[in-house]
Amino acid sequence: MTPRRYEQRLRAESAAETRRRIVDAVYERLREAPAEAVSVERVAKMAGVARSTVYLIFESRAGLFDALTADLYDRSGYSRLLEAVRVDDAWESASGGIRAGVDIFAADRDVFRALYSMQQLDPDAVGGTIRRSEERRAEGMAWAARRLRRQGYLRPGVSANEAAHILWIQASFEAFDLLYTARGLPANKVADLLVAIAHRSLVAEPAP
Fold first, then answer.
1. What distances in angstroms separate CA 150 from CA 11, 85, 90, one per listed residue?
2. Among residues of the chain, what percentage have pLDDT more than 70?
């Protein structure tokens, strides 16, 4: 390796390490004080960098929370969700997606709770991040509902749009948290119940 390439690699590794420290600082701040607004100044201090460095890397508070949310999903098992829904059978895909989503939320419930709770208090940064995440989730639910319709799974009278609404509710953080936190159910029982409700609401009974 030439000296120039070695220096480039060191700079890239240093930049990646700095980015990691900043994202980890936001993560820890949300766990420590989920009810408080996250300031760039506090995050920079926790990460050991200048405030300007945070903006240089992420451009804005919204960019910072976009990076945090993407990292949170990655570390909580988003790859397993993608694997679960990439199967040919539409119901297996939809139910597997609900189960994988429960595992993701359960892996770091407190940080997810903080983000969803803060979206109203911080609409420009956290709120925008959650809104974009929910828009992507809505697209996924619509895709799953269309597959259920094409493969003949839906009950008579249940449209693809209605199925998408039902899947949207069953796969939401709020549905998960009402059972996991408010009712104290373990994650596997939450997943079983959400999948069972979705099945009863959507899937046609086999002909006798």
1. 51, 16, 9
2. 92
